[in-house]
Structures
1.
Amino acid sequence: EVQLVESGGGLVQPGRSLRLSCAASGFTFDDYAMHWVRQAPGKGLEWVSSITWNSGSMDYADSVKGRFTISRDNAKNSLYLQMNSLRAEDTALYYCVKDISTYDGSGSYFDYWGQGTLVIVSS
Amino acid sequence: QSVLTQPPSVSGAPGQRVTMSCSGSDSNIGTGFDVHWYQQLPGTPPKLLIYGNNNRPSGVPDRFSGSRSGTSASLAITGLQAEDEADYYCQSYDTTVRSSVFGSGTKVTVL
């Protein structure tokens, strides 16, 4: 059974940093690209970032470019999101999401989602 | 402002057929990129419902069907059931932002 378990969310002040983690199991982690998708309270889904199977390429939404860094450790079956210079508008539930393919791109879609970890940016 | 536009809400009585649109442009759906659909039940993460415009993953009832034409796509639910009450999101790829994009979401209410 595929499982994606996020952790690391919490309440943080504007301008501070937070690191999210996602522990994956039930599939061959290093065979797939991975993504972070977020959902602000009461709002829709927003793609945040993606990373290819071998960390060869990472992409970011314009709203987080230069502030967030995605990474993965295939030996630990783990995905990460380092979030710096956090803003109130980053407040959201952050989902760890599995791609159906090795590479992200025009053919990407998402077959498994974690339960999410909540990030609240507020003073 | 989502790149893909969906109606905020649709509703129908049990047993009826409802449809919802996903309107894009020449930089996404109109280019020929596939459209995928997700169902999000209250308080749960999204679940893949339709992939590649009109394909259902194993376990998804055949009451759900998708289509794509021109710069738009549609999701239809036939024989609407109470358990179908959820938010539905379309997703595709956009060449302007060079990333996956989601629709604004449609809330389905079963009357």
Note: The radius of gyration of chain A is 13 Å.
2.
Amino acid sequence: QQQVKQSPQSLIVQKGGIPIINCAYENTAFDYFPWYQQFPGKGPALLIAIRPDVSEKKEGRFTISFNKSAKQFSLHIMDSQPGDSATYFCAASMSSYGKLTFGQGTILTVHP
Amino acid sequence: NAGVTQTPKFRILKIGQSMTLQCTQDMNHNYMYWYRQDPGMGLKLIYYSVGAGITDKGEVPNGYNVSRSTTEDFPLRLELAAPSQTSVYFCASSYSGTADQETQYFGPGTRLLVL
């Protein structure tokens, strides 16, 4: 019930491509869905987050799409750049409790 | 603001030894968390705290202990180190009561190797 499943494990795209990372959850009580970005040797940092009352949220080149009925959400990176190469984690929580359940992570490589 | 700081950055332990991983935040956050990160496994919550004097178990608490005597500090204790505790440990904090309450701010991590 607490799992968040993330795919793919790794992803390689060319500069300018649009990588898409997908996550699926089981617990319908989750109401907060963030994405964290992690560079090598650093801690994760919040990238963008969405709540289930909207189906899409954009911040710059990053977009979250949310499908409540399918219990799935995804991250799209428009016009990807080599500097976007990092590990991306989706997560979910019941916001009143603060505890995040993380997906397994996706290692993104953007070639110049 | 230094944010969330962790010490040490790297440590090698022998099986059966004990150690304390230190975590301090200067953002006056009431919530604090300890995660471990293993390759391909994401981050798993070990323990968390909603305020000074209040701690609770997360998903993988076995082999660890925590205390929270102040708002700023949340140390993680390993009593009898085992090879299965080889991992990267992250401390995080967040603040409840605002629109930004779910954002967790992570420290730089402690890499632990148990041999």
Note: The mean pLDDT of chain B is 93.
3.
Amino acid sequence: KQEVTQIPAALSVPEGENLVLNCSFTDSAIYNLQWFRQDPGKGLTSLLLIQSSQREQTSGRLNASLDKSSGRSTLYIAASQPGDSATYLCAVDTGANSKLTFGKGITLSVRP
Amino acid sequence: DAGVIQSPRHEVTEMGQEVTLRCKPISGHNSLFWYRQTMMRGLELLIYFNNNVPIDDSGMPEDRFSAKMPNASFSTLKIQPSEPRDSAVYFCASSPRGGPYPARGYTFGSGTRLTVV
């Protein structure tokens, strides 16, 4: 059974800092991995999708990497801003039945 | 593209009442998923459909929960009778997986916040 872990559960950083959010998964046989952002009381917004054959994806100040063999993904946020404050969730699609398995998320607070 | 549309946005109901949540997936997406989010358990998959057919309902908590997808553009999640422990945010998501489009990942609706008192 696939398990997705995100540690720590919460993170607070000063504005301008570059930061890395970690995600680990137990079964490396994945179809893709997706990073989502969730603002308080809102739905999930897809940030980046990495196919199993890819190593990384970039969108603006965000860069996500994938190392299937070690069961890890990282989300790199450059020059963090207060507007980046949100919960970031990692989700793995094992492809077996198109189901996503989610981590519990990392709640990021960027201090002005 | 209006995205995945869920209704209602908020629902407050009394214990024992029937609750129906609605979802309209993105046109052309052939997979639809219902998730529940709580502080304690995070996001849990309840059921998902592929081409309108329920594929896996192992996440449905108990017989009080049922879901239907009568056509490609509409799905419902029903709770009857509702209980206070059903209070959560219910999300619907759709995906083009398995269809004629390249895999582009999931798109989530804004969710329905259900409170059972």
Note: Chain A touches chain B through 23 residues (CB under 8 Å).
